[in-house]
Amino acid sequence: MHVHRFERLWFGASLVLIVAFIGTIIYGAVGPGIAMVDDSGGTVEPSVIADGNYEQTDNFREPGVYDTEDGVDVYVVARQYLFQPGTSEPIRVPAGEEISFHVTSPDVTHGFNLAGTNVNTMVIPGQVAEFSVTFEETGEHGIVCHEYCGSGHHTMEGKVVVVEQSEFEGGEN
Amino acid sequence: MATEHGSETGFETEQEYVETEDGTRRRLAFVDRFPEAARTARICLWIAFAAFGVGALFGLIQALHRTNTLRIIPSADYYTILTGHGVLLALVFTTFGIAGLFHWANTRSLGVSPTNRRLTQGWLWTMTIGTLLAAGTIVAGLFDAIPASADVLYTFYAPLEAHPLFYIGAALLIVGSWGAGFDWFLQYRKWRSQNPDARIPLQSFMVMTTMLMWYLSSAGVAIEVVFFLIPWSLGLISQVDPLLTRTLFWYFGHPVVYFWLLPAYVVWYTVLPKLSGGRLFSDPLARVTFVLFLLLSTPVGFHHQYTDPGIASGYKLVAMTNTMFLLLPSLLTLFTVVASMEHGARQGGARGYLAWLKDLPWERPEFSGVALAGIMFAAGGFSGMINAGMNINYLIHNTIWVPGHFHLTVGTAYALTLMAIAYWLVPQLTGKRLQFRGLAAIQPFVWFVGMVLMSNAMHRGGLAGIPRRTAEPQYDQVTFDAVVGTVGEMRLQIAIGGTLLFLGAMMFLAVMAGTWALGKPNSRLRVNGSIPEPLSGPEESPRVLDNLKLWTAIAIALVLLAYGIPLFDMVADGLLSPGSLPVPA
């Protein structure tokens, strides 16, 4: 089969581009250590979260910020149309320390995005989204629900406040 | 096989006029040779254009509402309008437009009429009834008096629940499209019985590979809707697993974008070279491209779920790798399209490295629209590469960047190609000369400018973290910091761009309505449907390229590799659990 010389060159260059793109992903994973949200958070029955029976699960706790020996854990329930905590009171976390977020939903699918950053996950009923973030600087980040969740979707928002470690008071562990 | 068998490749030069015995010339356009097939294609296109008109109006309402420019609906109704916009444009305008285009392309290239009239009527009615049910249920959401609604957007993620008629309508639309594909395969079988040794004509090859990909991928959403969402919305089962159903949706949700795109590719490969004044560069490479799409379009759906919990990273990595290799057929297409246009321009005497570009027939809307659609698709391809990158995707997932991206792809590569080719095809399907040609000549440029304004602002808004799918431009606790420009300037561009796009849509519909109402049947058309043979024809390529059974088998194997274990994982803890009760939207 005759393939024009230019076409062969283009074909080769395209393959190089593709392999280079895949290379950037691999580099991101092993270099800066960018981890995917995955199945590590486990599953939970949505009705258990809806009824507030957190003690019935071993992979989710009463919503709040916990300062444990292993680091800071944040448990967030995203529900129509608020983040708990996050909406009526901000999520306060320390700078320079690894924070583990655990987010789930008792009702419909939501999103959890710190606007303008790569802290971004889907919140799916039945699944606990687990991911780690280290905030290098103090300051505030707005939380946006970025998945349509009903007629009040555009009102679903919240705030993360990053404070100095000395000002941080976690909940009981 | 030598080129004298060109008539079997579908690229024969058709006689558009024949001398009759009394010395007059009789026209032999597509509508004259295949009146029944032309009628079917016309009906499909009219329904597509009607859906396009309503969908475009909804788009205008959204663009003005969420930029806070003009508000005629309460914000809660925004999502009803958004659902209608998505379903009417991404599912109805596309599926009917594709059916019309493929019905023409398959019949033209095989030179054989559809074989079974009742089958044709059956799929046409099934798709139409499905559309009316789904669209009717969505619009009912605007009226409190009607106890039905479907404010679930076109992704209809459970446990947000629509009225059962919405799911039934969507299922009928897809089942009807399966019937259309069956119609085209029967046509091919009839042709094959008359041409036992010939290579499959290129357009028919493209139609069939696209439909095989469509069967393989739409099975996912069919299972989601028929086995889970319909019984659940009727109360026959109490709960469904939200992760499993959305995974089935995205199993279909990425290949569906190639179902939109490949008809544009059919036009770019087979008609655009001729409109540029030349011929296709390479028939074999066109076949390779379509085979690659059949193989790789489906095992990639997890790239829409990079940020989903409950799915192991390894599965996402496999989907990412497949997605990147899916760039290959599109990059090959970029080469062929540009090379074919350049060849066409040089046939007309154009010179220079880039000067040939200005010698192309930009004043003819069928050319300018298709060419501008191709240029925009290149830009959409680049933003798609960002989406495909697992890491960087975290920055833009579910931001307004994403609709910025797909308005370049389905919203321009597909939509503008279909509009432009309608200027060329509708006269051949109706026997009526195109009316309002001056309006048609500027319409593609209006669309192009509108999309440049709207899409660049949406992409930049996404980088600032502005979410998609929201009725409100402002949040109390969140500030969006623009990386380039200001948020106010982006809003202005979206409002102006959306208005221009609506204007472009109305200009197109005016030309179509004018042609339909004012054009005289049996007029001289000023276009002809002949398509010249490619520079290098299929006879030089291996015959295995035409072995559709082999490619289908490999495609199924790749899907089983990419989806087998993840789906097993999801159903291993119970088919319906962890489960959610319905939440009416």
Helix-strand blueprint:
The complex is a heterodimer of chains A (173) and B (585).
Chain A: H1 5-30, H2 46-50, E1 64-68, E2 71-79, E3 82-84, E4 91-94, E5 98-104, E6 110-114, E7 120-123, E8 129-134, E9 139-144, E10 157-163
Parallel strand pairs in A: 2-5, 4-10
Antiparallel strand pairs in A: 1-2, 2-3, 5-8, 6-7, 6-9, 9-10
Chain B: E1 17-19, E2 25-27, H1 30-33, H2 35-66, H3 75-110, H4 117-140, E3 160-161, H5 164-194, H6 202-233, H7 242-253, H8 255-270, H9 272-275, H10 283-296, H11 313-325, H12 327-347, H13 365-388, H14 393-396, H15 401-430, H16 437-463, H17 487-518, H18 548-572, E4 583-584
Parallel strand pairs in B: 3-4
Antiparallel strand pairs in B: 1-2
Helix pairs in contact in B: 2-3, 2-15, 2-17, 3-4, 3-5, 3-6, 3-15, 4-5, 5-6, 6-7, 6-8, 6-10, 6-18, 7-18, 8-15, 10-12, 10-18, 12-13, 13-15, 13-16, 15-16, 15-17, 16-17
Count of individual domains of chain B: 1
The topology string of helices and strands of chain B comes to EEHHHHEHHHHHHHHHHHHHHE
> Quick one: CATH class of the largest domain in chain A?
Mainly Beta
CATH topology of chain B: Cytochrome C Oxidase, Chain A
Shape, principal axes of CA atoms of chain B: globular
Q: What's the oligomerization state? A: heterodimer
Sheet of most strands of chain A: 5 strands, mixed
| Model regions low in confidence, pLDDT < 50 over at least 5 residues of chain A | none
Radius of gyration of chain A: 20 Å
Termini Cα gap of chain B: 60 Å
Provide the spatial order of strands within the biggest beta sheet of chain B.
1-2
InterPro entries (chain A): Ba3_CcO_II_C (IPR034214), CcO_II-like_C (IPR002429), Copper_CuA (IPR001505), Cupredoxin (IPR008972), NosZ/Cyto_c_oxidase_sub2 (IPR051403)
Organism (chain A): Halolamina pelagica
GO molecular function, one term (chain A): cytochrome-c oxidase activity
Transmembrane segments (chain A): 9-30
